[in-house]
Amino acid sequence: MMPDKPGPMELQTAEELAALADRLGELETLFGARAEPVIRSVRAALLAGLAARDRGDAPAAVAALQRAMAELVQLFGSVDAGEAAAMQELVGGFRRAMARGEHGDAGRIAADMRRRSGAVERAAPPADED
Q1: Which of 16, 65, 72, 127 measures 20 to 30 Å from 113, CA to CA?
Q2: 26: burial class by Cβ within 10 Å (0-12, 13-18, 19+)?
Q3: Contact 73/88 with Cβ under 8 angstroms?
Q4: CA-to-CA distance for 22 and 26, rounded, in angstroms?
Q5: What pLDDT is stored for residue 44 in this prediction?
C-alpha cells in the first residue's frame, strides 16, 4: 500500500514520469516513424504505472514502469548497443532498489538514466502566492 501522503521523492518521481510520458514524442525526431509504435506503448505503460501508483497498487506500478523502461532500452539498442547495455544495467539497479523499497536509490538511478538519455531537467514553476 502506498502512503496516504507521498514524500518529496515520490511526488517528484511521479511528476517526472508524467513529464516523460508527455515528451516521448520528441524521440521520434531521433528514431523516426519506426519508433512510433514503441513510443505509444511506452507512454501507455508509464501512464498505467502512474495510475496504479495513484490507486495504491505498488506492484502494478513498478511492473508497468519496468515494462516501459525495457521497451526504451530496446529502442535505444537499435541505435547504440553499448548505450543500451548501460541503460539495461541501470534499469536492473532501479528494479532492485524499488523491490527493496529504497526510493532514494531509485531516484538517483532515475536521475542517472535521465542524464544519460540527454533529457533536460526543468525547474518546477513557482508556487502561487496569494
Answers
A1: 127
A2: exposed
A3: yes
A4: 9
A5: 92
> What gap in Å lies between CA 51 and CA 28, rounded to an integer?
25
Residue 129: the pLDDT is 52
Nine-digit cell string for 36: 512510433
CB 51 within 8 A of CB 44: no
Q: In the structure, what pLDDT confidence band is assigned to residue 89 with cuts at 50, 70 and 90?
A: confident
Q: Which among 70, 72, 82, 87 has a CA at the least distance from the CA of 30?
A: 72
Intra-chain end-to-end CA distance of the chain, in Å: 35
- Residue 1 Cα distances to 43, 103, 104, angstroms: 24, 15, 18
Whether the pTM exceeds 0.70: the reply is: no
Distance (Å, whole) CA 92 – CA 114: 15
pLDDT digits (tens, 9 = 90+) for 31-49: 788 888 988 998 899 889 8
Contact 54, 29 (CB under 8 A): no
